[in-house]
């Protein structure tokens, strides 16, 4: 658990302070030094334009991890709102909102994001919108399920009898009950957002050159995959390690919550 937490913290620190650690300007072109192997001057080598790969990876962490964090937070807020409305709004609202959720779930999220980004055009705004629109449904399902289970609890019934508004009940009774479960879901969706951003970047729909982003770096390196495979290996490893660390963090959180729940039931 500690090692996973340390790795997750390192990723967050890279996203926040990575550009400060970069030894070179990530967009500075030096054709005379293109496709160079790792050396003392360039620890991970250079790309086809002579740009330092390490510097681009560190700057790309802010784009890949930062945008993934933003997308997952937007999905969390939107999905939680839909789930709470379904749990609190009565049978008609529950039926309508869950049918909308099921409709969105019927489409593979990455395929739908590619279609939306393609219709809107390449760019960061289109990327955020496409991944946010296709990433809220699991939160809604979890929030609705936990919300319905909370409805029959004594303190919620007493709150209704006391005349508290639905907004107050949702704020003080529903949210504390659903947040632990949503936190576990969020870690998984954060990892999926990293993959989605990298995939859209690789397809040319994400962050546009010359700004560094891990998926865009993979796109730029694909032409030289046979001659200099390290160009693709470094950003690919960054994506894999980030997704693995976040998923392991989610597993550790789930296990910790399960232990706390078991202790509460035993008490």
Q: Show unreliable segments.
A: none
| Termini gap | 25 Å
CATH domain class name = Mainly Alpha
Shape: elongated
- What is the CATH topology classification name? MetI-like fold
> Would you tell me the structural class of the helices and strands?
mainly alpha
Report the biggest beta sheet as strand number plus sense, adding barrel if it closes. none
Mean pLDDT: 85
Strand content: under 5%
> Rg from C-alpha positions?
22 Å
Instruction: Supply the number of helical segments.
Output: 10
Domain module tally: 1
Structure in words:
- The protein has ten helices and no strands.
- The mean pLDDT is 85.
- The chain is 74% helix and 0% strand.
- The protein has helices at 2-21, 53-88, 91-105, 109-120, 124-133, 137-151, 154-161, 166-202, 214-221, 230-266.
- With 267 residues, it is an all-alpha fold.
- It has one domain (44-266): MetI-like (MetI-like fold), CATH 1.10.3720.
- The longest helix has 37 residues, at 166-202.
- α2 (53-88) runs parallel beside α6 and α4 (109-120) runs antiparallel to α5.
- It is elongated and about 75 Å long.
